Automatic annotation (TrEMBL):
Record-given protein name: 2-C-methyl-D-erythritol 2,4-cyclodiphosphate synthase
Gene Ontology molecular functions: 2-C-methyl-D-erythritol 2,4-cyclodiphosphate synthase activity
Cofactor note (record): Binds 1 divalent metal cation per subunit.
Enzyme Commission (EC) number: 4.6.1.12
Function: Involved in the biosynthesis of isopentenyl diphosphate (IPP) and dimethylallyl diphosphate (DMAPP), two major building blocks of isoprenoid compounds. Catalyzes the conversion of 4-diphosphocytidyl-2-C-methyl-D-erythritol 2-phosphate (CDP-ME2P) to 2-C-methyl-D-erythritol 2,4-cyclodiphosphate (ME-CPP) with a corresponding release of cytidine 5-monophosphate (CMP).
UniProt cross-references to SUPFAM superfamilies, sorted A to Z: IpsF-like
């Protein structure tokens, strides 16, 4: 078994879509980034890459490469899934937290879990997503940005020798 940790932050700005966990969320601001800036998926990818000892998302998908401009982070997660496979692992479980003062994310959490589980070819009960505010403290509380944390457990694939 291998454990990994991921963390990411993106700035909230006007005239951008808000995409978190692969779900578009109606809100007056969105997250700024080279990609679609899906802060939750970025933290999850970093936790997986951490468990595989394969560096981080900046190493695999550099923000200097125009190939990744406005790219869907769910697509990038599907590429990270290929690495999990190649290295001979399966998802054990993922537990992640989105830190956002607003909007209220609870109505979207089940759709996020389903999208992530589908992309990682794992049952939905291996994926847990939580949301919390910072009680109006700090950059999150001032609605300047949203952050996410993720931990991931990977298990060696079970090979049936019969
Ligand atoms: N953006 C958010 C933040 C929180 N929630 C939900 O509200 C609960 C209470 O949050 P606190 O920060 O006051 O502890 C939290 O457990 C989430 O269920 C949310 O939906 N969206
Ligand atoms: C995902 C990538 C690549 O498009 O871009 P961003 O959306 O800027 O995200 P960030 O978490 O800053 O860094 C990783 C980048 O490689």
């Amino acid at each position: 078994m291998r454990v990994g940790f991921g963390y990411d932050v993106h700035q909230l700005v006007e005239d951008r879509k808000l995409i978190i966990g692969g779900i578009e969320i109606p809100f007056e601001k969105g997250l700024l980034g080279h990609s679609d800036a899906d802060v939750l998926i970025h933290a999850i990818m970093d936790s997986i890459l951490g468990a595989l000892a394969l560096g981080d998302i900046g190493k695999h998908f550099p923000d200097t490469d125009m190939k990744y401009k406005d790219i869907s982070s769910i697509y990038l997660l599907s590429q990270v899934f290929k690495l999990i496979n190649e290295e001979g692992y399966d998802i054990g479980n993922i537990d992640a937290t989105i830190v956002a003062q607003r909007p209220k994310l609870a109505p979207y959490i089940e759709d996020m879990r389903a999208r992530i589980a589908d992309t990682l070819h794992t049952p939905i009960d291996n994926i847990n997503i939580k949301a919390t505010t910072t009680e109006w403290l700090g950059f999150v509380g001032r609605e300047e940005g949203i952050s996410s944390y993720s931990v991931c457990l990977l298990q060696k694939k079970i090979i049936d020798m019969r």
